[in-house]
Amino acid sequence: MADTSLLKFVDREQAYPAKREPEIRAEDFREIAERYAAPEAEDQAGRCSQCGVPYCSVHCPLHNHIPDWLRLTAEGRLREAYELSNSTSTMPEICGRICPQDRLCEGNCVIEFSGHGAVTIGSVEKFITDTAWEEGWVEPLVPGTPRGQSVGVIGAGPAGLSAAEYLRVNGYDVHVYDRYDRAGGLLTYGIPGFKLEKPVVMRRVDRLKAGGIVFHENFEVGRDATLDELRQRHDAVLIATGVYRARAIKAAGVDKKGVVDALAFLTASNRKNFGDTVPAFDDGRLNAAGKHVVVIGGGDTAMDCVRTAIRQNAASVKCLYRRDRANMPGSQREVNNAEEEGVEFVWLSAPESFTGGDAVSGVKASGMRLGAPDASGRRAPEIDPEGGFDLPADLVIKALGFDAEDLPKLFAAPELGTTRWGTVLVDNKTLMTSLDGVFAAGDIVRGASLVVWAIRDGRDVAASMHKYLKAKASAGRKAA
């Protein structure tokens, strides 16, 4: 029987679930590591030092009760651990898979600072909730007492789904409108299966549908209804669209065939893995097979692209990033995974132009060096006059991040206030936009960010909308 006592970080080494060998995992889109068996999960949870000030919780956007559910796991009390984990998060097993724990909870673990290696929080979180699904502990979504009010949610990504769940529990009729044919947003179409297998997302969506949340898929606001029309249908509306407009690369030849956006590439791959017919993949435009692939960018989306290209049997995969490894924004774990799978990183480099005829055949790159710090404090990259080089490329994937679409124009709502970055402007306390009864949350407010922040924003905006709707109902009763 496993030793489940706590504070064992000195004599018990950190151990993540074993990853499959790179050559094997690069052949499919399954997650690269299996989950813990129960004894191993209990052992690793038992390494927690149970500190008085749990920095792991402080640095978790959801402020999950991490030391408490680690203690319960170490004691073999898994159902209680699940219930506690689930009390602060609508998607704990998803966060356990895709959160950059090395930058959040695990990166701020006290025993990590002491040199003993952080508690493997994300892997334990995944284990707890996956076990809960298998054991039938995940209860159906039970709607609250009907309030006679309805809410429209625009966007079925993590912020929209999280808010929809809380609002349904509070008794509202909830309608979710999404442009895609499946709910989940980036969870479904933007994140590859080797990080987040799609049945994990779909079972969450199915639970929401079974709880009475109505999904309107293939529905585009601006095409199928204006924002104003949705305001007439519902007592309140939430904008949770995320940000999808790819940032441009300022380089000659960027319009050549074979220079594509990251999201188009990832969506095509995920659709193929669902079994969909994807013409742009089947005719080779969004398929890396046999090609020399160059990905531009250093964030998590770039990591998703290079690792997807490997699995599509690319001839070679290179990632160009204008800063060095220590200054890249993406997860270092993802960089390590990519390198194990055969990706070559070309640090301190940036595209100068894309060469070839109608179709791209190469990248002319500039070498970069780090100069003086910019406004954020990071050393700004500048061109190194002696560092240019050329790379062959049949497929170039732009992964420089995302900006907000022009929602006032897209939604036929010119009165919708936005910031100078194009994100939706909200009151910081209420999260309401410039339009009465219209709220916004997630990346469309904060800019491209993490899934865990979107879930947190969904939780916060649902509470604010609940307060607004109760006041609206009360005012209506008084007027009657």
Automatic annotation (TrEMBL):
Protein name, UniProt field: NAD(P)-dependent oxidoreductase
Keywords linked to the UniProt accession: 4Fe-4S, Iron, Iron-sulfur, Metal-binding, Oxidoreductase
Pfam short name (any one): Fer4_20
Residues covered by the FAD/NAD(P)-binding domain: 151-458
Domain Dihydroprymidine dehydrogenase: 25-136
NCBIfam families, per the entry: gltD_gamma_fam (TIGR01318)
